[in-house]
């Protein structure tokens, strides 16, 4: 069993790496910098190539695993889930339920932000309220909080009140988008996250952000976990293209390279001194259909599309032996997973003639024109879109593929009526189906990707979350996912597996399957 929280920290000999290029444009400064300036040889620096330039250091701003893997180094939640999916207290030292809807949270004594100011219960409630006020993506995790009734008891104690019993609340509070920020720093910086507001309790503090290039961080001298981080300087290099990251791995251009191209796995593993590491995730990739726009507002058209694509063949083309073609509406290991659900709804196979006939029956004898959105730089998702484009053509569907940066894609889909199809992954970060389902509820971040605001479906999610018995809740999630599958608005494509590369002198790094908010604070570079 992986020992995420009991890892012994060894004294580290650390890597020497020359500084990467980039100017001062877009630079941002954070809180206290315990490590000061890195040495001329950067012998105490861990360098990681990551898939995404966050574009902002605002906690919870973007609903992407790659985003949270960056900002998680700065901000921490009340709880975390370890690599076995077990809940661990983090900023919360202890808690007790006063009744089914009132949860008393006791914060750890003596925890400070990176600028030396104390963490208080007011910072926690303010962080949650800010997410709700701005309708940020993590709202789906706290959608059942009655914020008007939540209150600060004292500096180290707060009371959370839910609108109904919430069986998964504690696990949802481990969501990395719910990292706690300093209200005082935010106020002093007048809300400028790139210039002073990015102050958290995490292992690292911001030193310099260079847009399009890197984020340099240094050890938080006030960190509450003694002896951490193990390596005092962390450099995150932004490399958006997965093939380029694979080239970095083969060239040993960084100590850790996150999310390499799976088709390069053998070539990377063949390089002496480089190790490919993989672990299952709780994320499923979906073809999302906007039910609010024509012709996708017709469920028969949506069902016809499932006959116009070859999911197993496409997934094998795109991912090879990484992960698995979808077998359920959520990934194996997630509460609510049903291994028969995919076959029952989407296992009919590729049949373009059937799709063409269904379109004709729905009033489209001459076929339809559709556009699919995907993220720039994701080679595998691009390949999926191109494969669907070729497959759909045989069914009379003219598919246009549009690639957008993640923030632009999110902003466009958030308009609700400016998109038709989207390739998008959703994660069950609490190892239960509700973490995905809550993201497509009205008021949450991704509802507009499908606009499936069916009243029965919404009630099923809401009622399922109130069930405290796990076995009963599991059946409720299965029933809810069955209803979602019947609507043909989210077609599961692939159950994700994480893949990265690390140099053989790196020790202590583990990929986190819950929401991929990787922990670098235990990682040493023993070169």
Features:
disordered N terminus, eleven-stranded mixed β-sheet, 527 residues, globular
Please explain how this structure is put together.
α15 packs antiparallel against α16 (470-487). α11 (379-393) links the parallel β14 (368-375) and β15 (397-404). The chain has 16 helices and 19 strands. The chain is an alpha+beta fold. Strands 1, 8, 9, 10, 11, 12, 13, 14, 15, 16 and 17 form an eleven-stranded mixed β-sheet that branches. Strands 4-5-7-6 form a four-stranded antiparallel β-sheet, covered by helices on one side. The chain has a two-stranded antiparallel sheet with strand order 2-3.
SSE topology sketch:
Layout: E1 45-50, H1 65-71, E2 79-81, E3 87-89, E4 92-99, E5 102-107, H2 121-133, E6 151-154, E7 157-161, H3 169-172, H4 183-188, E8 204-210, E9 214-219, E10 233-238, H5 242-250, E11 256-258, H6 265-269, E12 274-289, H7 299-307, H8 311-319, E13 324-325, H9 341-346, H10 352-361, E14 368-375, H11 379-393, E15 397-404, H12 406-414, E16 421-427, H13 434-437, H14 447-450, H15 455-465, H16 470-487, E17 490-503, E18 506-507, E19 524-525
Parallel strand pairs: 1-10, 1-11, 14-15, 14-16
Antiparallel strand pairs: 2-3, 4-5, 5-7, 6-7, 8-9, 9-10, 11-17, 12-16, 12-17, 13-17, 18-19
Helix pairs in contact: 7-10, 8-11, 15-16
């Amino acid at each position: 069993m992986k020992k995420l929280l009991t890892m012994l920290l060894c004294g580290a000999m650390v890597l020497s790496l020359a500084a990467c290029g980039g100017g001062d444009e877009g630079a941002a400064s954070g809180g206290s910098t315990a490590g000061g300036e890195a040495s001329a040889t950067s012998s105490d620096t861990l360098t990681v190539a990551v898939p995404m330039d966050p574009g902002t250091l605002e906690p919870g701003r973007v609903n992407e695993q790659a985003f949270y893997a960056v900002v998680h180094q700065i901000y921490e939640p009340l709880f975390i889930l370890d690599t076995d999916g077990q809940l661990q207290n983090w900023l919360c030292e202890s808690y007790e339920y006063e009744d089914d809807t009132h949860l008393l949270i006791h914060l750890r004594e003596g925890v400070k932000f990176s600028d030396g100011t104390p963490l208080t219960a007011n910072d926690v409630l303010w962080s949650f309220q800010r997410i709700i006020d701005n309708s940020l993506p993590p709202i789906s995790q706290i959608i059942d909080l009655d914020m008007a009734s939540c209150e600060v008891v004292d500096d180290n104690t707060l009371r959370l009140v839910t609108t109904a019993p919430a069986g998964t609340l504690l696990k949802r509070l481990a969501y990395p988008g719910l990292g706690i920020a300093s209200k005082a720093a935010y106020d002093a910086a007048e809300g400028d996250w790139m210039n002073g507001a990015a102050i958290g309790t995490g292992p690292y503090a911001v030193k310099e952000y260079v847009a399009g290039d890197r984020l340099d961080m240094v050890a938080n001298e006030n960190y509450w976990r003694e002896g951490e981080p193990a390596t005092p300087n962390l450099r995150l290099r932004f490399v958006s293209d997965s093939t380029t990251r694979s080239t970095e791995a083969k060239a040993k251009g960084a100590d850790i390279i996150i999310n390499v191209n799976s088709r390069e796995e053998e070539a990377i593993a063949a390089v002496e001194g480089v190790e490919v590491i993989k672990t299952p995730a709780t994320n499923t990739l979906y073809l999302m259909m906007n039910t609010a726009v024509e012709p996708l507002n017709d469920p028969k058209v949506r069902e016809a599309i499932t006959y116009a694509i070859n999911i197993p063949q496409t997934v094998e083309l795109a991912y090879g032996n990484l992960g698995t073609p979808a077998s359920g509406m959520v990934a194996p290991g997630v509460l609510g997973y049903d291994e028969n659900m995919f076959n029952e709804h989407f296992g009919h196979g590729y049949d373009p003639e059937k799709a063409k006939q269904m379109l004709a029956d729905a009033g489209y004898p001459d076929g339809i024109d559709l556009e699919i959105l995907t993220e720039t730089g994701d080679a595998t998702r691009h390949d999926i879109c191109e494969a669907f484009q070729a497959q759909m053509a045989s069914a009379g569907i003219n598919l246009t593929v549009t690639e957008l940066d993640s923030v632009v894609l999110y902003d466009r889909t958030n308009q609700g009526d400016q998109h038709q199809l989207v390739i998008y992954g959703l994660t069950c970060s609490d190892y239960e189906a509700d973490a995905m389902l809550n993201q497509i509820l009205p008021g949450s971040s991704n509802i507009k990707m499908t606009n499936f605001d069916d009243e029965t479906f919404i009630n099923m999610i809401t009622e399922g979350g109130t069930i405290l018995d796990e076995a009963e809740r599991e059946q409720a999630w299965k029933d809810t996912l069955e209803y979602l599958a019947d609507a043909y608005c989210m077609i599961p494509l692939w159950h994700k597996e994480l893949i990265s590369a690390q140099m053989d002198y790196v020790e202590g790094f583990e990929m986190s399957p819950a929401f991929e908010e990787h922990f670098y604070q235990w990682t040493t570079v023993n070169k």
